[in-house]
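Predict structure. Input: Dinitrogenase iron-molybdenum cofactor biosynthesis protein, 113 residues.
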Amino acid sequence: MKLAIAKQGETVSEHFGQCEGFMLFVIEGGEIKSEEFVESPEHKPGVIPEFLASVGVTDVIAGGMGGGAVNIFNSKGINVFTGISGPIRAVAEEFAKGNIESSGSICSHTHSH
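Output follows.
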């Protein structure tokens, strides 16, 4: 599986669409096998979910995420975990162990795109 965590500094970004980029982790057998940073593409409706799907992401973690992005991920079979906070590496390790559950935190504010 390939996990993307929305990054702000060394912690999980509170807002998916406004993060500086994503840490991508390849996870096999409950262990992190590789990791890399990718910059976030521009924040326009649908751009970031399409980008992450194109690089093979299977799971996404963020503090919060708008409903439109969640719907796009769901339509592509990508699992979304929101309401998550903390240091990125620690969150990735807990995810690899199966210890991360989504709180369902969806951003309800509107964007003027």
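The CA atoms of residues 49 and 73 lie 6 Å apart.
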